[in-house]
Amino acid sequence: MTGTWPSIDHGALSPSGRISKRARAAFDKRETARLFPPGYWDVTSVPETWPERRKALLWAAANLRSLAAGGMGPRKNLKAAIRIEGDVVLEEQWCGCFAGDSPKGDG
To answer: What are the φ/ψ torsions at residue 10 (nearest 5 degrees)?
Structure first.
């Protein structure tokens, strides 16, 4: 069988080409440590500014509307786009800001 399987340490294989559960687990542990060094999964969140968030939400809504217009889940995607656009409007009204401002004065 050919494919994009990870290479196996052939020293761990038996003559028949099979690998034991213990050897497989040890190999997986080594490969995981090599591919994902310590701290790889530590996510440092970057504070998002309101104009960036607003732009991303409106882009998502426009994308959903274009999918609906193309016939892909027209009702579902149109409803989701309307909900996202409504969320943007509500957030702007709640914080009293407009397109260029940041909610709660953080930008």
So the answer is: -70, -15
